[in-house]
Amino acid sequence: MGKDKRITWVSGPAKGFYIDFESQKIGFSDQEKGLNRLQTRLLFFMLSSPAGFITASDTANDKELFSIDFSKYISAIKSAIKNLFKAADTTEDPSVLLDQILEKRSTYGNTGYRLRTELTDVLDEVTSETSQPDLTPIKEQDDNDLPLGMKRYLKNNWLVLFIYVFLILGAVLGLDSMGITVQLLLVKIINLPFGYTFLLMCLLSVLPILGGILIDVPLAVKEYVKKAKIKESDLDAASKHNVAMNLVPRFDNSKENVMFFLICNLTGGFTASSVLLYAKSIPGITDYLSSTNHVYAFVFTMLVGCLVAMFNNYSLQTTKSPTRCADDFILTRAHAFLNLIYLSISISLGGALIYTYLSYKFFYGSDAAVITPAYIVMVLAAYCYLWFSSNSPAADEIDSISMNNFISGLPILAIVSTVYTIVCFKPDFVCLVSILTAPIFLVLWIFCLLKRKKENTLKFQYFISSFFSIVAIAIIIMLALNFWL
Fold first, then answer.
1. pLDDT of residue 169
2. At what angle do helices 295-318 and 182-191 cross, to 10 degrees?
3. Of the four listed, 89, 144, 192, 219, which is most buried by Cβ atoms within 10 Å?
4. What span, in angstroms and rounded, lies between the C-alpha atoms of 458 and 475?
């Protein structure tokens, strides 16, 4: 490669393309484009890697690349190469040419990339310039070498799960000692001023993020500083992020993750609050709760809500991802435990209230009610939450664990909300607007479905294993039992 540290493609459709590591430029057919220092370093890291393919976890252990967003940098490099080919006015498809430069491979959920060196000139002088990172990984527990799965999950979380179960049992015991049944508890919640419950839901939704930033990150940095025998002042913001996410894994405090986490929880809390607000607007709903006995249905629905919250945490710890560290979600992390509590409350409350007004209207309702703004807000909020948490660009960027909620949940939501609207409300303009929201979001659903099908990331089990589907199936089962019994 010579003193200039330059690699050139000498065969294939991209023949003539080169990367000049010295000048930090890429070139093709008399056209050149500059790269920044870390982009150039990432390409050289690929070239120097004995394994060829590198992933986000590989760059996390490099002293220069540990702080980069791997997927973003790869995307920026791809974009620069494509723009170069377009500027060269070649007749070849830039995407085809790009495939001659970078090769992508996904193995067990980790996305890796390598340079197609077999198409380049002599590489004898290319030696690894990567050195041991200044930040040395520190393992928190020996059993972290176990493969991801139930055994590892139980080893890491058994004590917190034990405490979680006894918190639920303690709440049941406390309510029973005060003579409060599940249905009476729902009546009290519905009768509370909405402002109080809404603020409480918002607070619960924000607590996990605050726990991650204010508790988990400082604890991770403190532990690393103590074991590495360095001063905290020696670590900049990027180093602290790498420590908290990978080296002493407790929380991903990157801007992208924090914003997605915050918006997801806030919109989820907003959706649960809108369900409550609509339930409050239904005449006679509290009398129905007080006079009927569906304790088994409410207990089952709330239990499923708690299990779904636990399933969410289990999936985060057992699903491999190029953008997540499984150990960040162990329940000894403040943000993980607080999120488990938040999801348990919001999903259980939302599921119980949805069962309440569906059973009331379908089996005990009398005249059709006038549609309220709370109902429209509830439906729109549910649609938007499903999309943002699973198939939005932000969800794709961080590889959201809820990626199947929109694909599986939207058809169920569209059918149930449309049938409910037609059966329960007097036809008017507002009712028509409510019904038209379903086909609008179905267009977006079809677009996402086709995209997932093209990417070959769509399987039948995704439709029945998503968090939304589990709750929806539980409510439908309880409604069916109510109808038959």
1. 94
2. 80
3. 219
4. 25
